[in-house]
Design brief:
mainly beta; Immunoglobulin-like; 4-stranded antiparallel β-sheet; 2 helices; 8 strands; 14% helix
């Protein structure tokens, strides 16, 4: 009887084990497990941008604590550093009610290779030279 209980317990234990995760193949072959990459950029004065890479594209999510009355604000990833940024490298979706989500056709490694880069939020389309938030992307 005791043998049956022990054997039954071992079988129950074996059936409850999680399957092993696939191993990463050499050279990107079968079994490759893609690990998502991400980074966060602090936007001054109050906000953040989260960059999440998946399948060779990056989703940029902006969250800002903006004063009342600011809405539909253009946002871009610029060449250069805050506050004196240069040309637009990637336009982003306008910030509406303090939020914006944009998918861009690049990777985080490709962005870092183009450093220095900064993310800027502008006051409005009419006042494009006035910045309400800025943050430097890490190298």
């Amino acid at each position: 009887m005791a043998v049956l209980i022990v054997v039954g317990g071992v079988l129950l234990f074996m059936n409850n084990q999680q399957p092993a995760k696939p191993q990463t193949g050499i050279g990107g072959g079968p079994g490759v497990v893609s690990q998502p990459k991400s980074m966060e950029v602090k936007l001054d004065p109050e906000g953040k941008a989260v960059f999440e890479e998946k399948d060779g594209k990056v989703t940029v999510t902006l969250e800002l604590n903006q004063p009342e009355g600011l809405n539909n604000q253009p946002a871009h990833i610029h060449v250069g550093s805050c506050p004196g940024v240069g040309e637009v490298l990637f336009p982003l979706s306008n910030v509406i009610d303090g939020k914006s989500v944009t998918e861009i056709n690049t990777t985080i490694d490709q962005l870092k290779a183009k450093s220095p880069l900064a993310l800027n939020v502008h006051k409005s389309g009419e006042e494009i030279t006035v910045y309400t938030a800025c943050g430097n992307l890490p190298k």
